Amino acid sequence: MSKSDLLVELYSNLTTTGAVTFSSKALVKKMLSFTDLAHADLVVELGGGDGSITQGIVDRLNPSAELLVFEINPSFCAAMKKQFPQANVKIINDSAEHIANYIGSRKVDYVLSSLPFSLIPKEATDQIMRQSRECLKPKGKFIQICYSYLLKKLFLKYFSKVDAKFTFKNLPPAFVMVCH
What we know:
Elements: H1 3-12, H2 14-17, H3 25-32, E1 42-46, H4 52-60, E2 66-70, H5 74-83, E3 89-92, H6 99-103, E4 108-113, H7 122-135, E5 136-146, H8 151-156, E6 162-167, E7 174-179
Helix pairs in contact: 3-4
């Protein structure tokens, strides 16, 4: 699927993508600067989209580690499966509400998310946030890209510490919430 086809898909599904453009390389770099992916065993990405963040993760990930990417849009999933054929990268066409179904009793080093929590129903948000917190290793992090500082309140309901970082190097400018 070409970038123009992905953009058409993005704009025709704004209620589920919650974005007007894909994440810039600078935003991905900022998000991933709070990780040590070279030493991670299991990483989960919520909202794979066009694979911008996925590519950044794969570029830094230890080849022996596993990456699970949740994406509800079938077109994005199909494109990502072609883009990331590696055996350690699993593209999952399912809601992030079902993380536990895919990781079982394993623990996750990082949950990296670009989900549009402002648009997701409260019950689903609660399920996603609760499962994300519960699946993390003791020193694991939930890292979220968002466009509103007000979402920090949401993350503080599930995590004891949330650091908000801002970057202008994205359209629109964005926050990276690092939750411990």
